[in-house]
Write the structure tokens for this entry.
Amino acid sequence: MNEQPHVLVADDKSEMRGLIASVLRKDGYHVDEASDGFELLAVIESLVAHTAGRRPPIGMIISDVRMPGLTGLDLLAILRCADWTTPVILITAFGDDETHAQAHELGATAVFDKPFEMEELRAAVRNAVPQW
């Protein structure tokens, strides 16, 4: 049996990050949390180090768009420039058309405007995360 893929959740609001992480853990996912983009990159680097340089089994990244330091859009651009095809869902309280367009141009799997239905997020994760 393959190792269960990780779902990484980055949001500077601990309540939102914790809620998403809790729901996904109840769904059986292994979830790592980060409070900003830099911390998320550190989590990814740690997972890479533990898999001897191979791409770790990251099944999904969920990130807030607006965070201190690196934004969700910055993270998505960095990942795509490094040829990472990991599905990324962005969440935002500032979901204007420009943000949505930029996210989709960078290859976001989905963009959810806050407040969103948790069941819709859960369904998007189920549909995008490789089965183990």
